[in-house]
Design goal:
By secondary structure, this protein is α/β, with parallel strands linked by helices. It has seven helices and seven strands.
């Protein structure tokens, strides 16, 4: 095992955007990292110390568990899991390809559940641990063209709170981070050019959106509270974002 004094942090979707910002932030705080995403080269390019980058699809439960076992052999047990991997495919339900709904449900919901399943039993047994799920303001209210995406993020809010109650007496924390509009490549997954154009116009009307580093700072703040303090949810958005 490497000579590290802080606990292992696992981050999914760590190749770009919020996930990459999380990796840099938690690494700067001295934590060894397991970075998981499909694009391993992008994670390795971060060049973070005491980090292990593994190409994993979060819908693959077995692959997640194998990667975690490998990282724990090197850095010790998982202290914090950040479920960040997600896709946003916007569209009207009557015209959107149902395959896009399946993709979002599999990654945004099943991916989160798979990550939790991989670490929760051990956290309960050790009576310590933190799971941070990256949701969205779209998990608290609805938006035009967001029906299926909102469904996945409302699910993340619900499952996080449900599990938090179940494991509270085991001293395990579950935290929801719900960002508003953030400058990431998330919108690029949407296939409708009209929707993407409208989203860009909305961002310009607000005078810009928040940076991934703002979300990472919120997660680090929640993590760094004493283990007997659970910041259950943080909602952050551009000041000018009205909905």
């Amino acid at each position: 095992m490497n000579q590290v004094t802080k606990s292992l942090v696992v981050i999914t979707g760590a190749s770009s955007g919020i996930g990459a910002a999380m990796a840099k932030s938690f690494s700067a705080a001295g934590h060894p990292l397991l970075l998981l995403a499909r694009r391993v080269e992008a994670m390795q390019a971060l060049e973070l110390p005491n980090s292990l980058s593994i190409s994993v699809d979060v819908t693959d439960t077995v692959a997640i568990k194998i990667a975690i076992t490998q990282a724990e052999a090197q850095f010790g047990p998982v202290g914090c899991l950040i479920n960040n991997a997600g896709v946003m495919l916007l569209g009207q339900i009557d015209v959107q390809d149902p395959n896009e709904w399946s993709r979002m449900l599999n990654i945004n919901v099943m991916g989160v559940l798979n990550g939790i399943h991989a670490v929760l039993a051990d956290m309960k047994a050790r009576k310590t641990g933190t799971i941070i799920n990256i949701s969205s303001v779209a998990g608290r209210k609805t938006f035009p063209n967001h029906a299926a995406y909102c469904a996945t993020k409302f699910a993340v809010h619900a499952l996080t709170e449900n599990i938090r109650e179940e494991v509270a007496m085991d001293d395990v924390r579950l935290i929801t981070i719900a960002p508003g509009a953030v400058e990431t490549e998330l919108l690029s997954h949407t296939t409708s050019d009209d929707i993407k154009a409208g989203y860009h116009d909305w961002k310009e009307e607000m005078g810009g959106v928040i940076a991934p580093e703002n979300v990472a700072a919120a997660a680090l703040f929640a993590w760094q509270q004493p283990q007997n303090v659970c910041v259950r949810e943080i909602v952050l958005a551009p000041t000018r974002q009205q909905p």
